[in-house]
Design brief:
Lyase 2-enoyl-coa Hydratase, Chain  A, domain 2; mainly alpha; 2 domains
Length: 129
Amino acid sequence: IKEIDLGLTADVGTLQRLPKLIPQGIVRELAYTGRKFTGEEARELGFVNRCYNDKKTMLSAVRKIAEQIACKSPLAIRGVKEMLLHARDNSVADGLNYVATWNSAMLLSADLEESVMAMMQNRPPEYND
């Protein structure tokens, strides 16, 4: 949180969002000091999921994750993104109501139909973008 080094208070949501992601004490330390941290510390704090020894290994691993995501229903991925963003700023009860509404619409989706057919036919699903 480098704004402190410029004599400013971080202003683009950093101080509003970070306390929801990492412990308050760590947020305060980073905000008050503006210190840098290593990739390993970033992993420990939950800023990143994994650390890699080199670029080639990282790119290979990230590609595998991207391939796993890409074979899922685009509509379901969109729904997951929407629910995670909604959960960040709303109560669990609100989130459950929202996902119930969302999923009621998904029951009529071509993606759901394709997913079920693919499972029944023991094949990978083929979704329309």
